[in-house]
Design a protein that fits this description.
The complex is a heterodimer of chains A (480) and B (183). With 480 residues, chain A is mainly alpha-helical. Chain A is built from 14 helices and no strands. Chain A has a single domain, classed as Up-down Bundle (Cytochrome C Oxidase, Chain A), CATH 1.20.210. In chain A, 73% of the residues lie in helices and 0% in strands. In chain B, the strands form two sheets. A five-stranded mixed sheet of chain B has the order 3-9-8-5-6, with no helix packed on it. A four-stranded mixed sheet of chain B has the order 2-1-4-7, with no helix packed on it. With 183 residues, chain B is an alpha+beta fold. Classes of the chains: A mainly alpha (480), B alpha+beta (183).
Chain lengths: 480, 183
Amino acid sequence: MNNILKLKKITSAWILAILLLFVLAISFGITMRFNQANDIKLSPVTFYSLMTTHGVTMVGIWVVAGMMAVNYLLSRYVKVSNGLNLFAMALTVIGVVMLWLTTFVGHYHTGWTFLYPLPFYTAWEKWATPVFLLSLGVLGIGWFVWSVGMLWQILKRYSLPQAFAWQHFKKGHTVETPPFILITTVTLVGVIACLLTAVLLLILYFAEYFSKGTFTNDALLMKNLTYFFGHTIINEALYLGVATLYELLPEVSGRPKFKMTWYVAVAWNCTLLFVLTAFFHHLYMDFAQPQSFQIIGQVASYFASLPSASVTAFSVIVLIYKNPVKWSLTNLLFVVGVAGWLIGGIGAVIDATISNNFVLHNTLWVPAHFHTYNAMGNVLFSLAFFNWAAKDFQGIASPLRYDKTKIFWLMVGGFGFVLMFYIGGAYSIPRRYAEYPNEFTNAKLLASAGAWFAIIYLWAIIVILFNIVMKCIKMFSVSE
Amino acid sequence: MNTHSTILLLFLSLAFIIAVVFITVYRSSKRKEETGGMINVNKKRLTFLLVLASLAIILLSVTLPDSPYYLYANETPSKVVFVGAQQFNFNMAYQAIDPKKPITEAIELPANKMVEFRVTSFDVNHDFAIYNDKAELIAQTQAMPGYVNMLRWKFYKPGTYNILCLEFCGVAHAVMRASFTVN
């Protein structure tokens, strides 16, 4: 079997696995919202186990969705390793099975942020804590090796300054760095940095676990490490999706490719610089944290997202405005995804302002903004890639009937779902409550409405997925 | 209009502007013939980026001094309340609390005078969030083992204030609460 066919089959397997887990994880989320609405009754242990599964699964699948999409498109520029791709897939499957065992069998429920020292206050099976931490290690090793492999291949073709597009800061350069290569490089560096931090975090956890009380970690240090890892990995997942947009949106729209310019280079180098310190905004309410870190957190939160989001949005608008665009499901998903990313980004920047965070931190405003730029941003970038890839596998387009209707209902469901969170945040309703205290009079109604909007979103997703899934399944019977 | 409503209104207004821009751009693209697209792109892009960068710098300079770390920094608190959070209650007292023998006292605070909460945790991370009688979150700080977070605040309205935990701390997180009165 040739390498390209093998890559297509591996990518098909990734898409099928991701979509299956996505549908299940959305269902867990809907179940949680119905429980908060009092429409169904789960025990708190079941609710928080579902919450942990939902969070870790969603983060994991959108990281690998971005990684495998970038891996597929990278093969246009450099040689990619199918072996590393398969290795990462094998470890991802093992890691996910271990994770789900801990939550569904072991009733482990720390939330996906597993803030130290909560994993040691076991209100679940004793084995679940080390297995949960080990599962993160298994996932991390697979993704780390895969990221390093891709970055290595990029650096074999482009020098480090070229991969970062630094030559575009001055006139007269001879080598052009494609935007896709720049964004992928910036993102992979971030992924590698946060996975290395995760290794340190796990070492510290296991050091305490095996020390039998002779060694105790510092809670503030552990929280910083946890959010460096957690915040950075989910942001990098989004940027992997943006990389696919830069590569595919002009192509599927019948427009000229995006070219590298000095402002695109500046924007993404800003992201590289600032995204690694933006995580401090998760610790604004830890007043013991040095104040300089808090200020860096707000400045970095503004300048990590603003340049890349505004440059990307402007470029997309210029690409489309008053131009003949060949609309398809793929570019509709990309463009709605950019709008979702921007709207979620505004919600995030509002929350990343310390004086606002004082009254928004850990209210429903938090799931509001991250669900917006994930469910209505990054997820749509990945779905756009899946739709394009399914066509690329077999060279045939799906019938375009009803595409606008599908997108319409996806937006109704998605934006309606997150709006209930935003209103909840404005009503100061806490996040991560299995049931709401009586004083939050609107909380149950908002939860119920949110769940029904999420069902509309899920239905639209399933309709969109149907053709993609069928083509990916057919891919396995294709031979040379 | 309270802070929360202002924030929601600001967000919805900006989201609406983004939606209008994208719908306008999408509708403009349906022309079959090439019409040349946007004109003066470089000038518009530069203006757009400069406006956004200026806005970001203005927002930073206006909002950073309002951060809760600087609240009443030069004043002396009229009362100090020690808070030791633990799964799943808040111990509150006027003197330091021994984690091995935690105590809790009924807390009454003076209106219109600055008070200081010294918040820590005896086990996992919690969040000490103060809600007024309309269930509006007015102030908060985290409760972290090994650290003391000092929150300074002035209550202008007498009445009962509820404390809720806003950091997920385990199975009874949603029912972890306490209250105090302001006279």
